[in-house]
From TrEMBL, chain A:
Entry keyword Transmembrane: yes
Name listed for the protein in its UniProt record: Transporter
Origin organism lineage: Bacteria, Bacillati, Actinomycetota, Actinomycetes, Micromonosporales
Keywords: Membrane, Transmembrane, Transmembrane helix
DNA damage as UniProt keyword: no
Segments crossing the lipid bilayer: 41-62, 74-93, 113-131, 143-163, 168-186, 192-209
Length: 229, 111
C-alpha cells in the first residue's frame, strides 16, 4: 500500500466485507442513475403535451362539429406547433446529455432511434400535406391527428423491441389500440381518446419506468446489510 | 463454516479502485465512458483517477483507449472482460464472507 504516494486513505481496502459490499452497491446505484436517462424526462413532457393539445382539439372541434369551449380556430393548432417544437427540443437535449461522453452501442442506438422519429414524421407530414386539400374538413383534423398518433405508437413498439423494454412496448400497443378506437369513433372523439388514453398512457408509463429503475437500483442492495451498520 | 475463506483480489480490494470498477460495471457491453464523465461520477481528482486506472489497466481489468473527438483528444474507458469477471468474483467472495451459508442464493442474485 505504500508504493504510491497518492491517495493513501482511499487506496486502503474497505474495513470489512459489509463495508465493501455497501461501497459497491452505492457506487453502482449512483453510476446507473447517472448513465441512464430518467424515463420521466422522456414521457411526462409528451404525455402532458398530448393531454393539453388533444384536449384543446376536443373542446374546440368536438364530435359532430360541436364546440364545447369557444376559442379562436388557430389556437389549438398554434399550441400543437409550439408544444411539438418545445418538447422535441427538450427530448433531444435530455438525450444528448445522457449520452454525452459515452461512446458505443447505447449512444448509437439512442441516436439512430431519434433519427427514425425525424425521418418517419418527415415522410408522414409530406404525405398528409399532399392529400389534405382533397379531404373534407372534419377528416382533415382526423387525418392529421390519427396518422401521427399511429406512427408514434409504432415507434414506441419499435423502441420496446430495440431496448427489450416491456413498458415501452405496452405503451406502443396501447397507443396504437386506442388510436384505432378513436378513428372508428370518428372526428372529435378521436381527440378525446388520444388526450386521455394516449397522454395519460405516457404519464403512467413514465411513472412505471421510473419506479422500475428505482427498484432495480434498490434490488442490488443486499438484505440485512443496511441493518447491521 | 465450510471450506477456506475466499481470497479477495488485491487489485480491486482498495476503496478507490473498487469504486472505479463498480461504476464501470454498470456500463452496458460495448459502451465506453470518457474520462471527465467518469471522474465526475466518481468525484475523484484527475490525478487520482489516472493513477488508479493505470493500476487497473496494468492488471488487464480496464481498457483505456485514447482517441480524437474532432480535434479534442478523448480518453475512453471500459471494463475488460477480465475486469468484469474479477469484479463479479470479488462481489461473490464478499457476499460469501458476509454470509457463508448462502452461496447458492448469491448466485441467483447475480442475474
Amino acid at each position: 500500500m505504500r508504493d504510491e504516494f497518492v491517495d493513501d486513505l482511499r487506496d486502503a481496502p474497505p474495513p470489512d466485507p459489509v463495508a465493501a459490499l455497501r461501497l459497491i452497491e452505492r457506487q453502482r446505484a449512483e453510476a446507473i442513475r447517472r448513465f441512464s436517462p430518467d424515463p420521466r424526462l422522456y414521457h411526462w413532457p409528451w404525455g402532458l403535451a398530448w393531454l393539453i393539445v388533444f384536449g384543446l382539439f376536443f373542446l374546440r372541434y368536438g364530435p359532430g362539429g360541436r364546440t364545447f369551449v369557444a376559442m379562436p380556430d388557430w389556437l389549438p393548432l398554434a399550441v400543437l406547433a409550439v408544444a411539438m417544437i418545445a418538447v422535441t427540443v427538450f427530448t433531444a437535449v435530455t438525450s444528448s446529455r445522457t449520452y454525452s461522453q459515452i461512446s458505443g452501442e447505447s449512444a448509437r442506438r439512442g441516436a439512430w432511434y431519434g433519427y427514425a422519429w425525424f425521418v418517419g414524421f418527415a415522410g408522414l407530414f409530406a404525405t398528409l400535406a399532399r392529400v389534405t386539400p382533397a379531404l373534407p374538413p372534419d377528416l382533415r383534423t382526423l387525418a392529421w391527428s390519427a396518422a401521427p398518433v399511429a406512427l408514434t405508437g409504432v415507434l414506441y413498439l419499435a423502441g420496446g423491441a430495440v431496448w427489450l423494454d416491456r413498458n415501452l412496448f405496452v405503451l406502443g400497443a396501447w397507443i396504437s389500440g386506442s388510436n384505432i378506437v378513436g378513428v372508428v369513433a370518428g372526428p372529435g372523439w378521436h381527440s378525446l381518446v388520444t388526450a386521455l388514453a394516449g397522454g395519460g398512457g405516457m404519464l403512467v408509463t413514465g411513472w412505471l419506468l421510473h419506479r422500475a429503475a428505482v427498484r432495480a437500483t434498490r434490488g442490488h442492495e443486499p438484505d440485512g446489510v443496511g441493518a447491521s451498520g | 463454516m465450510s471450506g477456506p475463506l475466499p481470497e479477495l483480489d488485491p487489485v480491486i480490494h482498495a476503496q478507490a479502485r473498487l469504486r472505479v470498477v463498480a461504476a464501470l460495471s454498470t456500463l452496458p457491453d460495448g459502451d465506453r465512458v470518457a474520462f471527465p464523465r467518469l471522474q465526475d461520477i466518481l468525484v475523484m481528482t484527475a490525478g487520482n483517477l489516472s493513477v488508479h486506472l493505470r493500476k487497473l489497466e496494468d492488471a488487464g481489468y480496464v481498457n483505456v483507449t485514447k482517441t480524437h473527438h474532432g480535434r479534442t483528444p478523448t480518453t475512453l474507458i471500459c471494463l475488460s472482460r477480465r475486469g468484469r469477471l474479477a469484479f463479479d468474483e470479488y462481489t461473490a467472495a464478499v457476499r460469501a464472507l458476509i454470509d457463508p451459508t448462502n452461496r447458492h442464493d448469491q448466485q441467483r442474485e447475480e442475474v
